[in-house]
Amino acid sequence: MIKLKKILKAGVALLSASLLLLTPAINATAAISSTGSIVSNVDTSNLTWPSAPNVQAGSCILIDADTGSILYEKNAYTKCYPASTTKILTGLLTIENCSLSENITFSKAAAESVNITEDANLGTKEGETYTVEQALYGMLLYSANEIAYGLAEHVAGNLDSFVDMMNAKAKEVGALNTHFANSSGLYDSNHYTTAYDMAMIAKACYNNATFVNIDSTSSSYTIPATNKTATPRTFRHRHKMLYGREYYYEYCKGGKTGFTDQSQYTLVTFAEKDGMRLICVTFQEPSDESRFVDTKALFEWGFDNFTKTTTSSSNISSLLTNETIYTSSVFSKKQLNYNLTASFITIPNTGSSSDVTIALDDNYDLTNNNGELGIHLKYLFGNNVVGTTTLNINTSTAAKDSSLPYLNATDNHSKYSAKKCLYINIWILLGVVLIIALVAYVIYYLNTSTNYKRRRRAKRKLRF
């Protein structure tokens, strides 16, 4: 495994040095060191990034949901308290692990987990039953805290186990500076994230069709009478940029609001226009109004100033050296297959794909899944990340060599013994040959010199 990782990193270096061969959309070349630094022949000194609007948020970010391109950021890596924007991750984990038609019955701990007069809640009672779908609407649209607690128990058995799932999922999607302590976002000093991390979580949510279908509901939703409550509960989304709301923005597709005294006003919003999907996260907003005003301004700026283009998927195995791996009782050979996943980049309208360079993405480590190793790369426009991709190496598919013998399932394996195989490193072999040649030359030189001196002495004796 270590050997394969070394091969993969070497492949990345070769990839960067041969970027012209990888994708016609990017005409830059760059060399990548093992630490991810860039040595590039692309002059980025003249590149300019569009001027963004002023925002009141203490921390915020705008990214392209498809490319991961960071269009704008302000203190995006600063630790913040997310408040109820936390619930988007609770919703995603619920959708990934439950059927919408499942019934959920609320425990006493869940029902009593909120302050009825202060915290957002739907007054769910102990023993009350909803479907998972109804619970998700109650949590994502109305931000009911007791429902977030109940869903956590339903998914993982208890709140602590669900929190572990949340933190694992956060790391999985690239939110490396995040730690959750509960499923609702109620203040806890150990419950924090960053605007960048929340954007990575939101990106995962936005790519889940069921999540988007629920979260984009602009009309009212009703939970009918239940076994504990005779009156139906009707509510609307708290996000005020949806249709018919105070800060309506026609391209808004949903999101999640949040507020605590410690976090101030928080907001995560999804928007889509002309095939471009953007995510905006604003933290530490001073007012309810400012978070919507800032978000709309950033969306309008993003849609007006950037273009998304496609990069092609390329097989780069020709750039890398394949290594023979002997695995069977006689032998077999596996080919190391390399490929770069198809990806997109988002660049300023005034820029060109020839301005793009490539580097290792520090937010991800080498991973191993089903015999495949992968390393994440990022495309850069100057110092701005305008896209991401993954370089994979796969050894799971055997590629037989016709010149080698193979065992069949019907063969009597006891008749065969393992072949002895000598692995020779060509560079070591050349080194040995050079050393032998050097030694031989030295011996020859010494012998020649000795014979010459003897002849000289013999001639001098003949003079007397």
Which CATH first-tier class of the largest domain would you pick? Alpha Beta
Quaternary state of this entry equals single chain
Structure annotation, total helices: 11
- Find the structural class using helix and strand composition: alpha+beta
Q: Count the strands?
A: 19
Shape: elongated
Radius of gyration: 31 Å
For the termini, the CA-CA separation is: 78 Å
**How many distinct folded domains?**
2
Tell me roughly what share of residues is in helical segments.
25-40%
Q: What low-confidence regions span 5 or more consecutive residues with pLDDT below 50?
A: 1-5, 12-40, 312-336, 403-407
Strand content: 15-25%
Mean pLDDT over the full residue set: 79
Per CATH, what is the topology of the largest domain? Beta-lactamase
Written description of the protein model:
By secondary structure, this protein is of the alpha+beta class. It has two domains: 2-42 and 310-394, no CATH class; 59-286, Beta-lactamase (3-Layer(aba) Sandwich). It is 31% helix and 23% strand. It is built from eleven helices and 19 strands. Strands 13, 14, 16, 17, 18 and 19 form a six-stranded antiparallel beta sheet that branches. It has a five-stranded antiparallel beta sheet with strand order 4-3-11-10-9, sandwiched between helices. A hairpin with a 3-residue loop joins strand 9 (252-260) and strand 10 (264-273). The radius of gyration is 31 Å and the shape is elongated. The N and C termini lie far apart (78 Å). The model is unreliable at 1-5, 12-40, 312-336 and 403-407 (pLDDT under 50).
